[in-house]
Specification:
Blueprint: E1 15-16, H1 17-23, H2 30-39, E2 43-44, E3 47-48, E4 55-56, E5 61-66, E6 69-75, H3 85-89, E7 92-94, H4 123-135
Antiparallel strand pairs: 1-4, 2-3, 2-5, 5-6, 6-7
């Protein structure tokens, strides 16, 4: 069990979730971090967060969407400032195992090849390109 803050035990440090996400450089601005926290898409220890003023402490696990993936991180330390990237990376440990390599599209779309300097295709050439793309497996 984590120690609860009480008048007898003021040593438990806490910080607002929006401020911590900004200090750890997950978001470029604090208002973006507050927007995520207020949207209800952020979880602290599997509990939904509804306010950016929610406090976190070391050892809490955060789950939130960022870009096209879901981040799962554990807070290792609370920051005192928004420092450089190496300092920010020391504030958390990433629990997500799917970081190894980005997903590769098995069917990449290649633009139709044309000679350099020929400009945009004509309407006839566009129809030929479209027909060629429809016939690709």
């Amino acid at each position: 069990m984590a120690e609860a803050e009480s008048p007898e035990n003021p040593s438990v440090e806490k910080i607002r979730i929006d401020k911590w996400l900004w200090q750890a450089r997950f978001f470029k601005t604090r208002s973006l971090a507050a927007g995520l926290a207020g949207s209800g898409r952020l979880r602290i220890n599997s509990e939904h967060v509804a306010k950016p003023a929610q406090t976190v402490r070391a050892g809490d696990v955060l789950t939130f969407p960022q870009g096209d993936r879901v981040r799962v991180i554990r807070i290792e330390a609370l920051g005192h400032r928004r420092g450089p990237a190496p300092e920010a990376q020391a504030l958390y440990s990433d629990l997500d195992q799917a970081i190894a390599a980005p997903a590769v599209d098995p069917n990449p779309v290649h633009p139709a090849e044309r000679d350099a300097g020929t400009g945009r295709p004509t309407k006839k050439q566009r129809r030929e390109i479209d027909a060629m793309r429809r016939n690709d497996p």
